[in-house]
Each structure stands twice: as structure tokens, then as C-alpha cells.
Amino acid sequence: MSIKKTTSWTFLTNHAHVLICLAKSPYERIRDLAVEVGVTERAVQRIIVELETDGYLEHIRDGRRNVYKVLSRKPLRHGIEKHRQLHDLIMLVKK
Predict the structure, then answer these.
(1) Residues paired with 58 in a beta bridge
(2) Cβ–Cβ contacts within 10 Å for residue 33, how many?
């Protein structure tokens, strides 16, 4: 008998997923980010605001689009991983 499991949790947060996607593709639209991460567009907008507020992300307007810059030399936030930088996480997951 084969049991099909659905993914109900992941090891990384949606914030990490958004940062990893933007590090890979800085011109990605919020709509496309939402599909890739598996959340709503509104959730992606909130995550981007939080990441910008905490200094992990910047955006620059390029015509009607945003171009995102991930500030990857910032330390990770949790006490367990704060000795590592965001860059380390991106390199670990990078395709």
C-alpha cells in the first residue's frame, strides 16, 4: 500500500523563500513570487515590507517595476544561526 503525504511544513520560512527567490531573480514580480513560494500576493507584499524594514532587502524602481537587492551580508536572525550570514543560506540553497 502506498501512502501519499502532502507537505504541511518546510524547514525554511516564507521570508527565506522570498529572499532566496529574489536573490536568484531580482526582477521577479510579486505575482510570480506568490506562485513560487505558495502564498498570496498580499503575503509576499507584507514579507517584502518586513524584510526591507529590517534591512535584508532594498528595492529600486525601474519604470513600472521594482528591482530588488538582497543585502546578503546581514546576519541571520535566530540565536542558533546568528553566527551565519544570509549569504550562507542563499549559497546553501542556490540551484
Answers:
(1) 69
(2) 23
What's the mean per-residue pLDDT of the chain?
A: 93
pTM to 2 decimal places: 0.87
Q: Which residue in 53, 59, 87 sits closest to 73, CA to CA?
A: 87
| 68 Cβ contact partners less than 8 Å away, ≥ 6 residues apart | 22, 26, 27, 28, 48, 57, 58, 59
Span 33-74, pLDDT tens digits: 999 999 999 999 999 999 999 999 999 999 999 999 999 999
CA distance 57 to 49: 9
Cell reading at 82: 546568528
Give residue 31's region: left, alpha or beta (phi > 0; psi -120 to 50).
alpha
Domains of the chain (ranges, CATH numbers): 14-93 (1.10.10.10)
